[in-house]
Structure formats: C-alpha cells, structure tokens
C-alpha cells in the first residue's frame, strides 16, 4: 500500500484504537502514534441486572420474552463512534491527508455510520482486519505487504 506523507491510519476495534500518521513517504512508511485509547471491559453483571422483558399479545394473552440487550455491543458501538469523532476532528484540522481505516468488519460498519463527508471523501482504503493487538512496527509491515 502506498501511503503519502501525513496520511492518517485509524486502527480500531470495540475496545481500543490507535491513530497513526505516516511521517515517512509512500516508498517507506514510518508510522507514529498520534492518539490512542483503550476502554476497560466491564463484566456483564455490572452492565445490566434486569431479567429480559416480556410482551403480552392481545390475541393469545400469553407472554413472550424480549431478546436481552447486548450491553457489550452497545458499548463497543459507542466506542467506535468516539473513534470516528476523533478521526473527523483530525480530518478537519489538518490538510487533505489520505485516510486509511483498519478494523474488524462489525466495527468498520459502525465507524462508517459516523464518518463526516470530509472523512468519507479522504478515505483511500478500508481494511477489515483486527490489528489493535499488534505493535506499530508489525502494523507497518502488514500495511506494506
């Protein structure tokens, strides 16, 4: 992948993100961390304690269970929205740098929901991989393959 100087790379999942900038050129990537954040995983027992809800149908009069809320997924979606907001802020504050987003498919879909038009116009690649557990030098090697 050829990334120009000052290109932004967002590596994210539902728990952690890294915002990297290419300080090298398109021939040799040199990625530097500009921002990072990691949220701690809260156990399910601390997120929601109620039983799943019940709905009573007028026709049959029998109760039906309502699917339990996935609190972890909601927290991951909020975290992805925060990462997208950071990317939007950086995209507005710097020049017209290229943007690459690397995230697992579900996080990538949630990020797309929160892109601004400026961010969407500058995205040159989206990679559906989870690289948040890799060090920056490995991320650089993976992106240059």
How does this model look, in words?
By secondary structure, the chain is an alpha/beta fold. The protein contains five helices and seven strands, in the order βββαββαβααβα. It has helices at 44-47, 71-93, 105-113, 117-122, 136-144; strands at residues 8-12, 16-22, 31-38, 54-56, 63-65, 99-102, 123-127. The strands form two sheets. Strands 3-2-1-6-7 form a five-stranded mixed β-sheet, with helices on both faces. α2 crosses α3.
Report a brief summary of the structure.
The chain has 145 residues and is α/β, with parallel strands linked by helices. The protein has helices at residues 44-47, 71-93, 105-113, 117-122, 136-144, and strands spanning 8-12, 16-22, 31-38, 54-56, 63-65, 99-102, 123-127.
Observed structural traits:
145 residues, alpha/beta, Nucleotidyltransferase, domain 5, 5-stranded mixed sheet, two-stranded antiparallel sheet, 35% helix
Shape verdict: elongated
The CATH topology: Nucleotidyltransferase, domain 5
Please give the order of strands in the largest beta sheet: 3-2-1-6-7
Proportion of residues in helical segments: 25-40%
- Report the end-to-end length measured between terminal Cα atoms: 7 Å
Strand content: 15-25%
Radius of gyration from the alpha-carbon trace, in angstroms: 19 Å
Corresponding CATH architecture: 2-Layer Sandwich
What is the number of independent domains? 1
Q: Which class of secondary structure composition applies to the elements?
A: alpha/beta
Residue-averaged pLDDT: 87
């Amino acid at each position: 992948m050829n990334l120009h100087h000052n290109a932004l790379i967002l590596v994210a999942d539902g728990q952690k993100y890294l915002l990297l900038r290419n300080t090298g050129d398109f021939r040799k990537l040199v990625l530097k961390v500009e921002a990072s954040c990691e949220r701690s995983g809260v156990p399910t027992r601390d997120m929601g304690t109620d039983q799943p809800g019940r709905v009573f149908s007028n026709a049959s009069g029998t109760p039906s269970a309502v699917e339990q809320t996935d609190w972890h997924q909601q927290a991951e979606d909020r975290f992805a929205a925060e990462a997208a907001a950071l990317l939007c802020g950086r995209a507005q504050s710097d020049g017209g740098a290229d943007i690459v987003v690397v995230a697992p498919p579900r996080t990538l879909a949630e990020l797309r929901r929160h892109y601004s038009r400026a961010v969407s116009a500058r995205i040159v690649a989206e990679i559906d991989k989870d690289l948040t557990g890799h060090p920056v030098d490995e991320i650089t090697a993976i992106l240059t393959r």
